[in-house]
Amino acid sequence: MTPGRWFIAIAGNIGVGKSSLTALLSQRLGWEPFYEAVDENPYLADFYRDMPRWAFHSQIFFLSRRLRHHYDLLQRPHSVIQDRCVYEDAEIFASNLYHQGAMSERDYRVYRELYETVVRILPPPDLIVYLRASVPTLLQRIRQRGREYEQVIDPSYLARLNDLYEAWAARFDRCPVLVIPTDNLDFVHEPQHLDIIIDRIRERLAGKEVLHLPSTRSAPPEEGSQ
């Protein structure tokens, strides 16, 4: 992208606060937001009730929407923020479904072939901001936002996703990844926490390494950066 025109994506597990941070960054920075199409997915409620039956359908819906959003936002003449990136669909969610037996070998092979073909020709974001949170924090935030179909999510499912996120963030090399621990971070109600995240994003986009954040209740704990 041209200088001063940025494409960043907010990544992280279910309930970690991606949509909230996307909205706040959009308001503060004047960047256009692209939100995850969760409420538009016609398979999602069925998926949470019967994952093996509906996993392929749900993942194909998310992949198609994310690919369309990724392409659309690359056409924008101004900076954009994406709520969840296309890489998470395949590397985290589809991979987890396949390895836990909820997606068949045939379905997973077709899904991966589609994903790998398209991402090879799509330019990556300038930066991915990965929001990290423990399972208890995720469960608390899921309860607070009150989506009925999410209340049945198994904590072990969130734990498996967390493990996949950590492995993915450590090996991902298509663009820089800025890791933000959020267990003690309330960027929705604490403006200084949002200020810290914005400062770190600006520093990372400027090519500076971001290695540590203050480890206090009023600021996020230690942060990693790849």
Low-confidence stretches: 210-226
Biggest sheet, strands in spatial order? 2-3-1-4-5
Average pLDDT works out at: 86
**Proportion of helical residues:** 40-55%
Largest β-sheet summary: 5 strands, parallel
Count of the separate structural domains: 1
Report the portion of residues in β strands.
5-15%
CATH homologous superfamily assignment: P-loop containing nucleotide triphosphate hydrolases
Output the structural class: alpha/beta
Looking at the structure, the CATH topology is Rossmann fold
The CATH architecture term is 3-Layer(aba) Sandwich
Number of strands: 5
Number of helical elements? 8
Radius of gyration: 17 Å
Structure description:
The chain is of the alpha/beta class and 226 residues long. The chain has one domain (7-205): 3-Layer(aba) Sandwich (Rossmann fold). It has eight helices and five strands, in the order βαβααβααβααβα. It has helices spanning 18-29, 44-49, 51-74, 86-99, 105-119, 135-145, 155-171, 191-205, and strands at 7-12, 32-34, 80-83, 127-132, 177-181. The chain has a five-stranded parallel β-sheet, sandwiched between helices. The longest helix has 24 residues, at 51-74. Mean pLDDT is 86; it is low at 210-226.
Write the layout of secondary structure elements.
Blueprint: E1 7-12, H1 18-29, E2 32-34, H2 44-49, H3 51-74, E3 80-83, H4 86-99, H5 105-119, E4 127-132, H6 135-145, H7 155-171, E5 177-181, H8 191-205
Parallel strand pairs: 1-3, 1-4, 2-3, 4-5
Helix pairs in contact: 3-4, 3-5, 4-5, 4-7, 6-7
Quick recap of the structure?
This protein is of the alpha/beta class and 226 residues long. It has helices at residues 18-29, 44-49, 51-74, 86-99, 105-119, 135-145, 155-171, 191-205, and strands at 7-12, 32-34, 80-83, 127-132, 177-181.
